[in-house]
Structures are given as structure tokens and as C-alpha cells.
Amino acid sequence: AGTDFKAEGPIFETALYNILGRIIDPADGNRTLRQIWEEKQYRMAGLGSGSDFVAFLDLAGTSSLDMSFVGAPFPYHSCYDNFDWMDRFGDPGFHYHKALAQIWALLILDMADRPLLPFDFNVYAREISKYVTQLEKYIRDKKAPVDVKPLREAAREFVKSAKMFEAWGDAWTKAVTEAGGYESSAMALERMGHNTRMANFETDLLDLEGGGLPTRPQFHHTIFAPDLWDNYKPAYFPAVKDAVDAGEWGVAKTAVGRAAERLGRAGWGLVH
After folding, report:
1. With 80 as the cut, is the pLDDT of residue 48 above it?
2. pLDDT digits (tens, 9 = 90+) for 171-218
3. HSE of 96 in the Cβ direction (CA atoms, 13 Å)?
4. Which ranges constitute the DSSP H helices of 205-248?
């Protein structure tokens, strides 16, 4: 409940931005949600926990998105968390419910109608590079003897792979547009392969061979997991962070290498 729109899941950022440009903010009435996001310089954060997407992203490796309107604290999971409270205090008139339903509906239609899945790997690569920088600072602040150089290099290579991958999509769009909407059979097969690689990318980030996080084996994603001590916050490169928190430097170094290997393999799979 609230009036401030929030979304998590950076791979969907560009697609969501396009949708937000079509939704009027219920409180303003004159500006779109995209205009408000641009004014506040919002960016989509990584996914944390506390919602149903955890099983899809962290266990099954399915690209996920979480969206909501947030605001002041409300009687979450209490006897007052009911329809009457929402109708009288949380969202009188259910205007924000309507806006959120419009966002979901338009996003679903957009994804179903596009020949190319509207995932943005340039944005994802940008955010992963930030996660590596944040992890490096965290390790430095903890004075841990752990070098993230392999992970930094893997993130740098992923930026290059993402640019190559997105360039193919741009070239496909240009070719089909110039041909008056015509797509050859050979190009259609390439496009389907392109979409398949997009769909498989998140799964390729799962560390299935390693059995998941050392202390939390139910979580397999290399980059995302709920924070060990606050399940509503995301932990980036959680195997590394958990090991650093425990003072297990050898485990942390191994986790850095495994994360770099998984990221490198996933990036390679995008362009090969």
C-alpha cells in the first residue's frame, strides 16, 4: 500500500520503462509514472526476498520481476490487513490497484506480442558490474583477504557479450523494418535461437554442480539470494558474502571463482 511505484528485476528495466510511459500517476493526474521515475532517477534494484518470485529466480533460474506501490507502514499480516482497511485507508477507490493491473496487463501483452523478448542485457550487465563493485567494497570494509579480480573480469566480459547480443537484435529490427516487415525463414530460425538464449540465461547462472550456497543449499542463483540476516534484502553474490561474514576466507575465494565461472559461461552462451 502506498503511492510510490517500485520495481525490482533489472533485466526488465527497458520494457517496464516503455510501459510506465503509458500509465498516468493516480495522485498527479498529469504526469506518467515514467516521468516521475526519470525525475527521481529511479533504477530497478536486484530482487531480494519476501515474495513468491524467490522460488522462480533463486531456485529455478527464471527471470523475475517484482512491482508494487509502497509508502508508509501498514498492518501487514495482521487482523487489520483486510479489504475494509484497504478500501478506507490503504487505497480508497482502488486507484493504485487499477494502475498496477494496467502495468501488468500491458507488460504481458508487450512480451507476448514482440517477436524478440524485450529483455535488456546491457542494463543487466551494467547492474552486475555495480554488484561486483559493491561486493568489493564490502570485502574491503570487512578487511577480508579475498580478491574479486576473477569476478571483475567476468563482469567486464559480460558487458562485451551483452553489447554483441543486443547488437544482433538491433540488426534484426533494422533488416525486418527495411524489408517492409518481411522475415525470411533463415532469419526466423535465428530469431528463435536468440529468444531461447535469452530465456536460458538466468538458468545458466544457477550453480547446480556446486549444490547451491554452502550454508543454504536451497538457493542456487550465483548473483541473487535473500540476505542471510534480513530475508527482505537482496544479497549480491551471496556465496561470497556469506563466507566473508563467517570469516571463511578459503570458502569465499572458491565462491568468487565459481561465480566468475558461472557468469562467464552464461555470457558466452548468449553469443555462441
Report:
1. no
2. 999 999 999 999 999 999 999 999 999 999 999 999 998 889 998 999
3. 19
4. 238-246
d(CA 106, CA 175): 26
Which residue's C-alpha cell is 501488468? 104
What is the band of 238 on the pLDDT scale with cuts at 50, 70, 90? very high
Strand partners, 69: 5
Count Cα atoms within 13 angstroms, Cβ side, for 163. Answer: 6
Instruction: Name the grid cell of 140.
Output: 574491503
Judge whether 69 and 5 are in contact, CB under 8 Å.
Answer: yes
Hey, which residues does 45 pair with through a beta bridge? 8
Report the sign of the C-alpha dihedral through residues 168, 43, 66, 20, in that order: negative
Strand residues in the chain grouped as ranges (E):
4-8, 66-70, 224-226, 234-236
Q: Which residues contact 119 (CB under 8 A, 6 or more apart)?
A: 11, 12, 15, 63, 198, 201
Q: What is the pLDDT of residues 3-40, one digit of tens each?
A: 999 999 999 999 999 999 999 999 988 999 999 999 99
**Under 8 Å CB-to-CB from 7, ≥6 apart: which residues?**
16, 44, 65, 66, 67, 68
Distance CA 71, CA 88 (A): 16
Q: Is the pLDDT of residue 72 over 90?
A: no
CA 177 – CA 169 distance, rounded (Å): 12
